[in-house]
Write a structure and sequence with these properties.
- By secondary structure, this protein is α+β, with helices and mostly antiparallel strands.
- Among the domains are: about 190 residues, Immunoglobulin-like; about 130 residues, Neutral Protease Domain 2 (Neutral Protease, domain 2, Orthogonal Bundle), CATH 1.10.390.10; about 80 residues, Immunoglobulin-like, CATH 2.60.40.1840; about 130 residues, Peptidase M1, alanyl aminopeptidase, C-terminal domain (Zincin-like fold).
- About 40% of the residues lie in helices and about 20% in strands.
- The strands form eight sheets. The chain has an eight-stranded mixed sheet with strand order 6-5-9-3-2-12-15-14, with no helix packed on it.
- α10 packs antiparallel against α11 and α22 packs antiparallel against α24.
- The two termini are about 15 Å apart.
- It binds (3S)-3-amino-4-(1H-indol-3-yl)butanoic acid and zinc ion.
- The site of (3S)-3-amino-4-(1H-indol-3-yl)butanoic acid has 15 residues, from β20 and α2.
- Zinc ion binds next to α3.
Length: about 850
């Protein structure tokens, strides 16, 4: 396999200041004529090399003349050029309707659209398809007017007209130089939800969200989110939008969540379409977050782009940090932080601990699309957050101003960003840079001792960074740990919060004047993305879960208490539940807390997260221990759960933080009532299912029923299916709810669902809703028979032939064989070997499967 290495970076041999593209659009055969002005970059005599993928040149001209001095080097068009600057023309023909990989120009439900990041542009035309070649684009499109009445591209519209023969044309021009991965065009029968946004400097921007006519009523939330995000970026980062129009198009077939193409974002329809009947609160929040994320890329990604793909986290980590901050500002900061940390622990920590671990700035890749990972995105965002914490809000803003100012219009590096943080922040980040180069989640051991007589408390901190593939030995990191002490008798704060920068392997911090026994609150707000082990007792954790003034730390104390109990139970067969029951009782009864926070705090850690705490995962024992604690909590607090349920039940649908919190707590309470074994639980859930005026309540009830064996379960699944059979986004929920079910027969059910007429691998959302959901269902996936592994491998082998990128992204759970017993590990390895033996396997899958076997 060919490997691309960061250390091999060389500046481009040729620049392309201007690009003109002419598309004769047709789903079966689209011709693309490209005219590039090219300029030799520096003193050299190397030819112009234009990347292509599956393209055949039909014409090559230089400076207006037919040119014969070219050849193909594999997929690359190599043209010998005599001078320093030339005009190069090429023509190719491509077939969008046969493009099942969904990279380049493809057709989704009759809409022609593009996806070019990371290396899709080379499937459209010959070009130096690398992010440091910035070009000014002009685009002309001709298409059948009836099938494709709307023609969109990047930038602002220039002109349009009739082309005769039932065809029409449009021209678009983007004044901002951009890399090829930000190119986009769309042609389709689309309708727009429009608005005007007036920027802080008084310019009017025409906003439009384009969807099929029937979906228009479900676009208001996305449009509102867009306007809110535009205003937020002005107020928070001083960033204003720069074109006259901003278009968003939603399509059903999309490999990712969305794409930030300059002035023409293209979205997976699941991150645009919402109404109360079909979208959950989680979906609503996801839409606002992704709309904001793509919009924020206009500065962090488009105006300043990446020099090479090793710098991907420069735009993605920073933009995730920006979208997380935006979403936090729209509701509860505490709840948003809890959600983000939960996502980090569910996706990134396992990645960092497994065979696919890589640094936030990787050193090498075979297939770049495999590196759109939780490490690049979520851990990358944590790096930005740590720098923001160390700098404080004013200096962080000065540092981002410097970055935007200094690197506007360029292709930059992670190093450039950190240098701005250092310069404007007035701090030294030499050692901090290890966060970009070292993979693995640091582990901190914190031991607090108290000398009652002397009034001294000593906090001993020790860090280790685990070995990861290719990095056996690690240097210590800089860990910004927010720390506070509380008195265990009085509950008083023993001094202010400290920001400790742990930079050595170990350090001791002395607290003087501590007369009562202190309790340690550490990594408050999850100030560093690390695993912390402490010598806190269950009573200390229960105390913090009730008294800590940092809501995240309060949540964390409860989670730790639950985890310790569950791990003890898995290890010893049983454990005392009283501490957890009392802590949950306390939280449920605390009237100062809002429902959304309570719902997060009382939720047990997932089976996978419990497994992550153990040397080897025993999926059955973990399931049993968790179910036993759930049942105990359900029974011991049944009165409290019913009270919480009743209180939240009466509310009519409204999309507000308070109403969302009430809905969340209601379904969490319903889950515990069901776990208690109460005889009326299934009918309670069924009533919620039937009477719901929104999808959050309906899906919450369906999920509760789907995990059980009641008659209501079958009825609810049928009703749900029939009610939403024409809505593919809701049908995805029908598939994923069953794939996530805790029932014993889930592996079998999932195999059946894969034969359902509505299951199709060619739609990434549908593939993910079954295969992706099933493979995170720890107990079902690791079924002792091995059928879960076989099922996933079978599906991925089939999917690889259609859409290798989506297949490869679903492979990692099969690679975690070192985490289970020898018998399961052998079966998982056998499936990986079987995948690798498939003739014609994509390089996407080859990279993931071969690394997973190491
Ligand atoms: N920057 C976008 C990444 C993306 C992507 C990557 C690989 C294959 C398909 C893709 N579609 C979009 C999305 C983002 O982070 O905003
Ligand atoms: Zn992004």
């Amino acid at each position: 396999p060919s490997v691309t290495r960061r250390e091999d970076y060389l500046v481009p041999d040729w620049m392309v200041p201007e690009t003109s593209l002419d598309f004769a659009l047709d789903p079966a055969a689209t011709t693309v004529e490209a005219t590039l002005s090219v300029e030799r970059n520096g003193e050299h005599d190397r030819p112009l090399r234009l990347d292509g993928d599956g393209l055949t040149p039909e014409l090559v001209r230089v400076d207006g003349e037919d040119w014969s001095n070219w050849c193909m080097d594999g997929p690359t068009l190599v043209i010998e050029l005599p001078g320093a600057s030339h005009t190069v023309e090429t023509r190719v023909t491509i077939c969008p309707e046969r493009n099942t990989q969904l990279m380049g120009l493809y057709s989704s439900g009759g809409i022609l659209c593009t996806q070019c990041e990371a290396e899709g542009f080379r499937r459209i035309t010959f070009f130096p398809d690398r992010p440091d070649v910035l070009s000014r684009y002009k685009v002309r499109m001709t298409a059948d007017k009836a099938r494709y009445p709307i023609l969109l591209a990047n930038g602002d519209p220039v002109a349009s007209g009739d082309a005769g023969d039932g065809r029409h044309w449009a021209e678009w021009g983007d004044p901002f130089p951009k890399p090829s991965y930000l190119f986009a065009l769309v042609a389709g029968d689309l309708a727009a939800n429009r608005a005007t946004f007036t920027t802080q400097s008084g310019r009017d921007v025409q906003l439009a969200i384009w969807v099929r006519e029937k979906d228009l009523p479900r676009t208001d939330h996305a449009l509102h989110a867009l306007k809110t995000a535009m205003a937020w970026d002005e107020a928070t980062y001083g960033r204003e939008y720069d074109l006259d129009v901003f278009n968003i198009v939603a399509v059903d077939d999309f490999n990712f969540g969305a794409m930030e193409n300059k002035g023409l974002n293209i979205f997976n329809s699941r991150y645009i379409l919402a109404d109360p009947d079909t979208a959950t609160d989680y979906d609503y929040d996801g839409i606002a977050g992704v709309v904001a994320h793509e919009y924020f890329h206009n500065w962090s990604g488009n105006r300043i782009t990446c020099r090479d793909w090793f710098q991907l986290s420069l735009k993605e980590g920073f933009t995730v940090f920006r979208d997380q901050s935006f979403s936090a500002d729209q509701g509860s900061h505490a709840v948003k932080r809890i959600e983000d940390v939960r996502a980090l622990r569910a996706a990134q920590f396992p990645e960092d601990a497994g065979p696919l671990a890589h640094p936030v700035r990787p050193d090498a890749y075979q297939e770049i699309s495999n590196f759109y990972t939780a490490t690049i995105y979520n851990k990358g965002a944590e790096l930005i957050r740590m720098m923001a914490t160390m700098l404080g809000p004013q200096r962080f803003r000065a540092a981002t101003d410097l970055y935007f100012d200094r690197f506007d219009g360029t292709a930059a590096t992670c190093e450039d960003f950190v240098t701005c943080m250092e310069e404007a922040g007035g701090i030294d980040l030499i050692q901090f840079r290890r966060w970009y180069s070292q993979a693995g989640t640091p582990r901190v051991t914190a031991t607090l001792t108290h000398e009652a007589g002397g009034g001294r408390a000593v906090l001993s901190l020790r860090q280790t960074v685990p070995p990861t593939p290719g990095q056996p030995v690690k240097e210590p990191m800089v860990l910004p740990l927010r720390i506070k002490l509380f008195g265990s008798d009085t509950g008083a704060e023993l001094g202010d919060e400290h920001l400790v920068l742990l930079s050595g392997e170990s350090e001791e911090i002395i607290f003087e004047g501590i007369s009562e026994r202190p309790v340690l609150s550490i990594n408050r707000g999850f100030s560093a993305p690390v695993i912390v082990e402490t010598n806190r007792t269950p009573a200390d954790l229960a105390f913090l879960s009730a008294r800590d003034d940092d809501p995240f730390a309060r949540y964390e104390a409860m989670q730790q208490l639950m985890l310790d109990t569950l791990v003890a139970s898995v290890t010893h067969g049983r454990a005392e539940h009283d501490n957890v029951v009392e802590a949950v009782r306390n939280t449920l009864g605390d009237e100062t807390l809002d429902s959304a926070f309570i719902a997060e705090a009382v939720l047990l850690p997932s089976e996978s997260f419990i497994g992550d705490q153990m040397p080897l995962v025993d999926p059955e024992a973990i399931h049993r221990a968790r179910e036993a604690l759930r049942r105990d909590l359900g029974r011991s607090l049944e009165r409290e759960w019913r009270a919480a349920y009743e209180q939240a039940k009466a509310n009519r649908f409204e999309y507000s933080p308070a109403a969302k919190g009430a809905r969340r707590l209601k379904t969490v309470a319903l889950g515990y009532i069901t776990a208690s074994g109460a005889p009326d639980a299934a009918s309670l859930a069924f009533v919620q299912f039937e009477q719901a005026d929104n999808m959050t309540d309906r899906q919450g009830a369906l999920t509760t029923l789907a995990g059980g064996t009641s008659d209501e379960r079958v009825a609810a699944l049928d009703i749900f299916y029939n009610r939403y059979s024409d809505n593919s986004l809701v049908l995805d929920k029908w598939f994923s709810t069953q794939a996530l079910s805790a029932r014993d027969d889930t592996p079998e059910q999932v195999e059946q669902l894969a034969r359902h007429p509505d299951f199709k691998l060619s739609n990434p959302n549908r593939a993910r809703s079954l295969i992706g959901a099933f493979s995170v269902n720890q107990r079902a996936f690791h079924d002792a028979s091995g059928r879960g592994y076989r099922f996933v491998a079978d599906q991925l082998i089939a999917l690889d032939k259609i859409n290798p990128q989506t297949a490869a992204k679903l492979l990692p759970p099969l690679g975690r064989w070192k985490r289970v017993d020898a018998k399961r590990a052998e079966m998982m390895r056998a499936e990986l070997e079987r995948i690798l033996a498939v003739p014609g396997l994509s390089k996407d899958m080859f990279e993931q499967a071969s690394k997973s076997l190491e």
